[in-house]
Amino acid sequence: MIIVLASSMQALCSFAQGSGNEERTDITKTTMLGIGATEILDTYISPEHYNGVEIRFIDNTLQRKTASPVSCDAVITPADYRRWSTDITHQAYLSFTSPRSDDNDNIAGLYTLTIGRHRHWDLLGNRLHLKAGAVGEAAIGFLYNTRNGNNPGQLRLGLNIAPSAAASYDFMAFGKRFSVNYRVQVPLLGVMFTPHYGQSYYEIFSRGDYDHNVVLSHPFNAPSMRHALTLQLHLKKMSIHWGYLGDYQQSDVNELKYHNYSHLVVFGITRRFHIVNH
User: Fold this and answer.
1) Tens digit of each residue's pLDDT (9 = 90 or more) over 64-74
2) Is 93:110 a contact under the CB 8 Å cutoff?
3) By the number of CB atoms within 10 A of the CB, which of 76, 80, 138, 194 ranks highest?
4) For residues 9 and 276, what is the distance between their CA atoms, to the nearest angstrom?
């Protein structure tokens, strides 16, 4: 798939060269896989803490346009770009956890779509790259318990707006170019779906008994954070990076407590393409 995409981008670029200089959009696409430990507490399902393993897939696309027309094959420096970029990130995870008694299991999954805009600053002779902005995130997922009879599952639905920032520092080592990258995202305001304590999904969806099931979320009732620290090795046509991802999601609403703490080792590749805007 990546090879086909790269070939398509190259064909678009070659075609556009015939019309002279054009505005260009550079696309940085990062695909990562994470695996590690997770801890889940959901008092709607059980008062016990569940611990286990999580596998996560991450796909991030960053789009940044040039500030003025350039030739398709021109070498672009940070000074040639517009100050704002667009980020689109897809994440999906699946986790398997058990309590201390080890007599039942939780199976959890979540998909999130994040779209954001960031302002860029390139400092220290283009070695230090900073960006800050905000993202909107939509999430849908589930938690299923293999033992519970009355309430075996929990539905996860949420929307939030979160400030987001990132920093990257480039350096040379062993004749290669490396980057240290850090990124953080903290939800500020949103809405989430949740049953009330003792309320079944049958009451909500079959009988229509609403009991504050759509709740405003904010740092006082749902303090959460996602951040990542990675080391990136730049090669000729791509870069490889690996590092740590911490995702700490929690809430205390409708007399129900929830948290999902994930500590993952992540690794992946980054490829860069560009397209011409007519």
Assistant:
1) 887 666 555 55
2) yes
3) 194
4) 9
